[in-house]
Structure formats: C-alpha cells, structure tokens
Amino acid sequence: MKTLFLTVANLLVFSALAQHSVGHFSKTFVDPSRNNRDILTEVYYPATSAGDNTPVASGEFPVIVFGHGFVMAWDAYENLWEAFVPEGYIMVFPRTEGSLASTNHQEFGWDLQFLVTELQNEGALASSDIYQAVSPETALMGHSMGGGAAFLAADSLCSNGNTNLRTLIGLAPAESSTNGVSSIASAANVTVPSLILSGIQDGVTPPNDHHIPMYSALAATCKTILNIIGGAHCYFANTNLACDFGELTASSGISISRTEQQDVTNDFVKLWLDYNLKYNCESYTVFQDSVSNSTRVTYSQVCLFSVPTINTTIAETAAQLSSNENAASAYQWLDCNNGYAPISNETSQIFTPAIDGSYAVQITVNGCRDTSACVDFTSSLSLIEQLNNHIQIHPNPANEAIVFGISSSMLFNVAITDIHGKILVNEENVGNGSKVDIQYLEAGSYFITFTIENERITKKLIKQ
After folding, report:
1. Terminal-to-terminal C-alpha distance of the chain
2. Are residues 280 and 395 in the same domain?
3. CA gap 351, 346 in Å, rounded
C-alpha cells in the first residue's frame, strides 16, 4: 500500500528531492477589459539558479495562480512557493485588493481569472523570463479571502469553457458575499476537480459556515475536502500579524504546529497537482491511499474516476517501433539520447526512427500519462535507406523556392543537377527547414542529391 506518512521528516525528504532553483520577477499586467486595470504580480518559476530574472529551467511548467488572504501580503506564502516551484510549477501571486478598508472580492476574483489566461500570453512573449516555459495546464489556488475569490474565478472560467483551468484548490476558503457575489453559489458552476483543505479548529472561517458549504455545492465529478485534525486558519501561511491576530481572538483548541500543518498541506497538494496538472495517475493512487489511511486528517470525497492500466511496452521490428497500448488518446515519441526530448511530429502509435538511437514513448489514456522504458533501436536498413522516407521537398512541383523537410537533426550536402548531370546548385549543411531559391532555373525536370557520410539518395524535382 502506497500510504503517505505525513511527518516533518517527510517534508525534509520532499525538499531534498527538489529539482529546480527558484527564479522570480515582478510584473504589472494590464486588463484592458476593466479600464486597463493594473495587476501588480509576483511570479516565481523553476530556474537554473535562484534569484531575480535568472534563466528559466528547461521544459514547460504548469501554472498555479494564487490568491492571498484578507490584508495578507503575498510574501506570507513563501512556504508554498518554496515547496512547489522546485518541483516544476510556476506560482503567480497578484498583489491587488490588499486594503483593510476597501477590498473588493469580485475584482480580486477577476484578477485571478485574468491571470489564468494572461500567463499563457506571458509564456509566448520572447522578452519574458518564462518564454516558452509555460504549460497550458493551470490551477487556481487561494487562502481565506483568496480561496473564496478563486471560487469566483473558477465559476467564470468553467462557465466560459476555459481549457487551461484543470483544478481548484482552496486553503480555508472564505465565503465572499460582498458585491452581490457568493463563493458558495459560484461552487455550483465549478466542474474541474477540486480540493479543499480545512483546519478543524479554524475560528476565522468556521468550516461549517465556509469550507463545508463550498465543498457540498461543488459540481465537480471529483472533489475532496480534507479536515486537518487540530488545524488552524492561518497556519497554511507563514507568520502574519493580521491573520495571527484574528486567529488569536477567534480560534481555540489548535493542537498542531504551523510546520505540521504545512507539512500535511504540501504533501497532499503536491500529489493532487501532479495528478491534475502533470497527468501522473500514480500520484492519484498515492493520494487516495493516503487520504484513507492518514491519522492526521478526516475527509469527505466524491470521485467518479478510476486509474487506467497503461501498457508501456514497445514492439520492435527491423524498421520501426510501435506502442502496445491500443487505447491511447495521444502518443509522443521521445529521444532518450537527447534528454527525453519530444520528437517533432512523431505522435502516432507506430514510429519509424530516422536514425539509430534510444527511444521511448509517452502515452496518454483517459487523462493519465505514463512513459515507456527506453528501447535501443538499430535498423537493418542502411543509413541512407533509413533517411530516405524522412526527407521531403516542399513544394514539388515548385516555382520560386523549395524548402526541405527533414525529420532528424542531421545535416546534408545537397546538389541540384539537370538531366545531363550538370550541377546547378551546391549547398552544404542543409537541414530541416533549409530553403533554396530556384526561380532562375528553367521549367523542366531536375534531380536533387542528398549526401551524408559518403551515402546518397536522389529525388526528382519539377520546376514549373
């Protein structure tokens, strides 16, 4: 049984296995739909070294958009970004609606909603520190007021068919009934998998008035509420004067430490995130076993989901590899000799390698994703025979220029000759996407010879 032991020691192991340093930048995003509203935001991301504006780590990372508690600053949640960013998540903290006198819960919900889509734009921005590092999968998460606002945001996103939002997580979420909205009412429109963590001794947002009604109203087909035994309201964050003062006057009977509550939170939330944002169904299995067996929480749950069994074996012939999983919704072949890099356009069940090497396949079945072991492939075909089917000429027939489509990283010497063998074009180091101007050639038939390692193939070209 894969039960999670929720101890301080486990938190130390969790931290020791972290893979990335934490990078950071601040940015004011502007929402044009609300009179160019400024949303000052702190962004923490997996980096090659810790610090401001450091290079982002290699890969694409899911996003967590986080809402802070009432009159709580974003830096009270350092415990969360230090736990999740090293594990391969981008965490985003809007700093809006922090006033004691004029906080607008609806505006804060709209800020969170806006950032879900805006972070996708940020990932496509060449000048950004997280350029090409943003995965589409996104979570809304928040504490107290921010948890309630996250429900408001999730309501709008689900109702509008947003495909980035994959899960909602509330840490002691507070019912927001200001400005004519209600987090409990919004829960009825939230269809993404949802997780609520509640401190049983929380007197700031009593569970019976806040967390439990939100859980009950959720429309998600997979929802869980974890009740932390002896848990508090403010212990989801680091020490914060405003929150701690409120807790001191409202809560009683707290019987665990802040570190212990954060330990429970980090372990369960990480498993939930890995399943919902990284398609890791092994994490879902461990989460379920841990929920059932932990002595630190009680729970309620509705989850209409079963973990599929994925066949990760590979069949090999002299010329190709094929996945033995026939029911997958997606395949992606990987180059094991190149850091498991996805191989462009190789998304079918059957894969014909362009060159000898080591390959694996990533398989998706019913929302779960698993990867095969690497297979060393050696074709019985010669190198040039292997490459023959992986070299294309676009367009053909052609008029002004041709572009080579080569499904490998190899470079060729290319010669274009007429029917008498006279060389008209001679290019070196031609690779995928290379372009050759042929507008000066007369209409007729020509031959293109690709040469590599003293082997060559010839293809016919028609010039219009």
Report:
1. 68
2. no
3. 7
- Choose among 133, 150, 153: nearest CA to 141: 150
Q: What is the pLDDT of residues 245-271, one digit of tens each?
A: 999 999 999 999 999 999 999 999 999
pLDDT of 11 higher than 60? no
Say how far apart CA 398 and CA 67 lie, in whole Å. 56
For the entire predicted model, the pTM comes to 0.78
Largest CA distance in the chain: 95
Please state the domain count of the chain.
Answer: 3
In this structure, the answer to whether residues 361 and 415 fall within a common structural domain is no
Dist. CA 90–CA 133, nearest whole Å: 9
- 154-188 confidence digits (pLDDT tens): 999 999 999 999 999 999 999 988 778 999 999 99
What average pLDDT does the segment 381-403 reach? 80
**Structural domain of residue 326, as residue ranges?**
314-377
Examine the domain organization and report whether 349 and 278 are in the same domain. no
Is residue 80 domain-shared with residue 149, that is, in the same domain? yes
CB burial string 25-59: b at 16+ within 10 A, e below: beeebebeeeeeeebebbbbbbbeeeeeebebbee
Tell me which of 359, 377, 395 is where a domain ends. Answer: 377
Model confidence at 301: pLDDT above 60: yes
Strand partners, 333: 361
Give the model's confidence band at 10: pLDDT under 50 very low, under 70 low, under 90 confident, else very high: very low
Let me know: does 67 contact 149? Beta carbons within 8 Å. yes
Angle (nearest 5°) at CA 60 between 371 and 287: 55
Q: Which residue has the tokens 């806006």?
A: 114
Token pair, residue 351, equals 């894969």
| The amino acid at 317 | T
Residues 323, 19, 293, 217: what is their CA dihedral angle, to the nearest 10 degrees? Answer: -80
pLDDT for position 17: 44
pLDDT, tens digit (0-9, with 9 covering 90-100), for 354-363: 788 999 999 9
| Residue 55 φ/ψ region, left for φ over 0, alpha for ψ in the -120 to 50 degree band, beta for the rest | beta
Could you tell me the pLDDT band of residue 381, with boundaries at 50, 70 and 90? low
Average pLDDT of the residues of the chain: 91
Do 140 and 154 form a contact (C-beta atoms < 8 A)?
yes
